[in-house]
Amino acid sequence: MNLEAHLAPYAAFSSASPGRRFPESTPSSRTEFQRDRDRIIHSTAFRRLEYKTQVFVNHEGDLFRTRLTHSIEVAQIARSIARNLRLNEDLVEAISLAHDLGHTPFGHAGQDALNACMKDYGGFEHNLQSLRVVDELEERYGAFDGLNLTFETREGILKHCSLKNAKKLGDVGRRFIDKKQPTLEAQLANLADEIAYNNHDIDDGLRSGLLTTTQLDDIDFYARHRKEVEASFPGISGRRAIHETIRRMINALVIDLIDTSRARIQDAEVKTVDDVRNSTALIAFSDDMNTEAALLKRFLRDNLYLHYQVNRMTSKARRIVRELFEAFMQEPRLLPPDYQVMQGNEQERLQWQARKVADYIAGMTDRYAMREHRRLFQVDEI
Ligand code: MG
To answer: Which of 308, 341, 363 is the last residue of a domain?
Structure first.
């Protein structure tokens, strides 16, 4: 049975995939991309997403987004757009669910701190780490390290990457050197991520009390939809009004992305994935929507991500990551045996040790990192 018969000719077909790094027999009851998605869902790194956060730290409240719920929201948005454009929903879902697997604890604060610690050791970048998780770090199969995913899923996970790193990565790095596009599914997962976090950060920001609806009324995109809600439901309660407003905003972004992308695909006259790779980016918002989204992003940065109460947590998070890194580098014997690097000349050993420490810290959930920090720095904690 051809499970991909309904796709547009420019979609990614798993039957045409360059395949996996370690060849495996074709699955009988699902496509290669479905198999990728299933492997991601069963991975340890995926379960860890439940206790990793983006803006709010896990213990701050039970209702805030975690990286797990964020990834599920990205997959939902990406799939519904994919179906409209007749793109491969399974691939877009696999990429969406895996896109944040390499994130450190404590969101961007954790990533920036770890990157600074790794300055002399090749740096740390969460996209690259997500790829490292699925290529190397997951230990589930007898025949290979990692999840042995298809080229297309790995390519989609590697959203961006420096030229220097691209040269080391082989096939998935190639497009950054050749300046080519990834599949439409990868382009789509990337923008679905933006739709998801911009909107849920507004929701979480309001829920936390760090943002107010009065502040948000300065953003025309929000104010317009909120007025529409109030006109349809006079006297609607605060929480419901927020949800009704946000769902309209998500819908407007989704519809704009579908319409703009459909027109661009038609104009570019792409017939195959190869045409897509040689074209400009085809999954895109309209110019007007890009302007609205940029205003929204700037608002969130100034009013939420840089809010002093958020800064207090991110400052603590940076300190925890930095102090863990320094302690492990000074005394590798504090690490579980698998993460200790004892062989090689001193320079090589240090490089490799730093990478293993980064893997260890990046794999931690927020609460595990806090606990590990207490265990190392407080004598009465075991
Ligand atoms: Mg994301």
So the answer is: 308
CATH no. for residue 237?
1.10.3210.10
Nearest-5° Cα angle at 367, 363 to 371: 95
Alpha carbon of 382 to ligand 1 centroid (Å): 34
Q: What is the CA(196)–ligand 1 centre distance, in A?
A: 8
Distance CA 112, CA 118 (A): 10
In a domain, 218, yes or no: yes
Alpha-carbon gap, residue 43 to 66, rounded angstroms: 17
Give the Å distance between the CA of 92 and the centre of ligand 1. Answer: 13
Q: 27 C-alpha vs ligand 1 centroid, how far in Å?
A: 29
pTM: 0.96
- 195 C-alpha to ligand 1 centroid (Å): 10
287 and 363, same domain (yes or no): no
- Rounded Cα distance between 184 and 86, Å, is 11
Q: Which two tokens stand for residue 251?
A: 């819908």
Based on the fold, state whether residues 205 and 81 are members of the same structural domain: yes
Containing structural domain, residue 57? 14-308
Tell me the CA–centroid distance for residue 255 and ligand 1, in Å: 20
Count of domains for the chain: 2
Q: For residues 193 and 129, state if they share a domain.
A: yes
3-class DSSP state of 215? helix
Measure 279 CA to ligand 1 centroid, in angstroms: 25
**Per-residue pLDDT tens listing for the chain (382 residues):** 789 999 999 999 999 999 999 999 999 899 999 999 999 999 999 999 999 987 776 667 777 889 999 999 999 999 999 999 999 999 999 999 999 999 999 988 999 999 999 999 999 999 999 999 999 999 999 999 999 999 999 999 999 988 999 999 999 999 999 999 999 999 999 999 999 999 999 999 999 999 999 999 999 999 999 999 999 999 999 999 999 999 999 999 999 999 999 999 999 999 999 999 999 999 999 999 999 999 999 999 999 999 998 888 889 999 999 999 999 999 999 999 999 998 889 999 999 999 999 999 999 999 999 999 999 999 887 7
Q: How far is the CA of 256 from the centre of ligand 1 (A)?
A: 20
Query: In this structure, what token pair is assigned to residue 24?
Result: 């495996």
Q: Ligand 1 centroid to 183 CA: how many Å? A: 18
Whether residue 1 is contained in a domain is answered as no
